[in-house]
Design a protein that fits this description.
Strand order of the largest sheet: 3-2-1-4-5-9-8
Mean pLDDT: 87
Strand content: 25-35%
Radius of gyration: 17 Å
Largest sheet: 7 strands, mixed
Number of helices: 7
Number of domains: 1
Order of helices and strands: HHEHEEEHEEEHEEHHEE
Low-confidence stretches: 1-5
Structural class: alpha/beta
CATH class: Alpha Beta
Number of strands: 11
CATH superfamily: Vaccinia Virus protein VP39
Oligomer: single chain
């Protein structure tokens, strides 16, 4: 179970993120296909299917794919541009390559996170965007380290190990974004030109040399020989800075 007790609460959180991403007019106009991995009741993918150009109101007419292990009540969010499928986020292959992969409050349930990220890389078009949002299960609370583990999950995710996973898995995080808010971490990265690998097969130094991590991470590696979370800063898509304490 996620940190949200009700589906509508999760959707309200994702809507705030969607509204921020919506500010990318050029990107919104450039994409043709969107896949929501772990779509639940289909609220988010319905949002994508109904988007219009802010200047003239022309529908973007995206091809949208909603994937979930259970097809829960998705009839309430039907749309001609949406294809729903019952499948696993680590293996589902849409009928065409994807320009934007959206995953909100779902990746924490991936049985094999490394394989899942490599799979996502394989089904996306070059330069495609991935937006990944997961609960922040470990963090400081009143100067004490606190852990929260939702049911059916094993991994603790931070902005740092998500960056490592994405960059190793073939995504370019150098011009990406990160937001820590409402006990969630949201990452934005782009499919890079480097091959997708496991984090066990590539180190931080190699990723820094490839130029696929943020400048603050590269500087931390150069200065300290490792990634120190308290030294890392990142901008969200709105320009808001996220400090990684």
């Amino acid at each position: 179970m996620s940190l949200f007790k009700q589906e509508r609460d999760s959707n309200e959180h994702s809507l705030r993120l969607l509204t921020d991403v919506r500010e990318y007019d050029d990107f919104m106009e450039s994409i043709r296909s969107v896949c929501d991995m772990g779509c639940g009741m289909g609220h988010d993918i319905y949002w994508w299917a109904t988007q219009e150009n802010r200047d003239d109101g022309t529908p973007y007419d995206y091809k949208c794919f909603g994937v979930d292990q259970t097809k829960r009540h998705i009839s309430r969010n039907e749309h001609p541009n949406i294809t729903y499928a019952k499948g696993d986020q680590g293996s589902y292959k849409p009928p065409e390559y994807i320009d934007l992969l959206w995953s909100h409050d779902a990746f924490q349930y991936a049985r094999d996170p490394v394989a899942t990220i490599k799979h996502w890389h394989s089904i996306m078009n070059p330069g495609g965007m991935v937006v990944l949002s997961v609960p922040e299960t470990a963090g400081m609370f009143y100067n004490r380290l606190r852990y929260k583990v939702p049911s059916n999950t094993l991994h603790h995710w931070s902005a740092i190990n998500l960056t490592y996973l994405l960059a190793a898995g073939g995504f370019d995080c150098s011009d990406g974004h990160c937001l820590r808010e409402d006990n969630y971490i949201t990452m934005v990265a782009y499919k890079g030109e480097h091959p997708a690998k496991s984090p066990f097969d590539v180190d931080w130094y190699q990723l820094a040399e490839l130029g696929v991590v943020s400048p603050s991470i590269a500087q931390s590696i150069k200065t300290y020989g490792e990634v120190l979370q308290e030294k890392i800063t990142w901008n969200w898509v709105t320009g808001k800075k996220s400090l990684m304490p």
